[in-house]
Amino acid sequence: MKQQLSGRWRELCGVSLRDQIRNEVIRRRTNERIAKLNWQWAGTIVRRTDGRWGPKVLEWRPRSGKRNVGQPPTSAEQAKRRKCENLDSSFIFVPFGVQTLGPWGPEARALFKELSKRVIESTGYPRAGSYLGQRISLAIQRGNAASILGTVPRCGGFEDVLDFI
């Protein structure tokens, strides 16, 4: 394998075995050549004027203001509330906005506090609320894993490994 690779490096540099140039020198030259070609390609992308995305990406500027930490779950809760505002009044609806490994929305936190308080009262065990939070977080992560695995085609050999869901 090393000889094949050395042959390709020699070919890229236009060097033959008769030139008696060491492989380390050829590798260094090859890496320099590849770097030069990459920079040439980047320059080609930047000089395009046909409206493709390359130059636009280089001109992009991130937002200057900061977003609140809990913004995504909060906006998800608001969107879900708007979507379900016409539900029958016999239902108790509480949107539960949660980021996978991040913050919970305000209504999700309020519901969780109320549920954990009731679980602690009914069991008499002070850590029951934290166990409930752990179970909810684990259920969310398992659901996300199931969603991802549902989009990947099954291939032989991994069914036993991935049956933890």
Task: Give a description of the structure.
- With 165 residues, the protein is mainly alpha-helical.
- It folds into two domains: 2-59; 71-151, no CATH class.
- 60% of the residues lie in helices and 0% in strands.
- It contains six helices and no strands.
- The chain has helices at residues 2-13, 23-47, 53-59, 71-83, 106-123, 128-151.
- The longest helix is centred in the first third of the chain and has 25 residues, at 23-47.
- The radius of gyration is 29 Å and the shape is elongated.
- The protein starts with a helix and ends in a 14-residue tail after the last helix.
- It comes from Pararge aegeria aegeria.
- Residues 62-81 are annotated as: Disordered.
Brief write-up:
This protein has helices spanning 2-13, 23-47, 53-59, 71-83, 106-123, 128-151. With 165 residues, it is mostly helical. It has two domains: 2-59; 71-151, no CATH class.
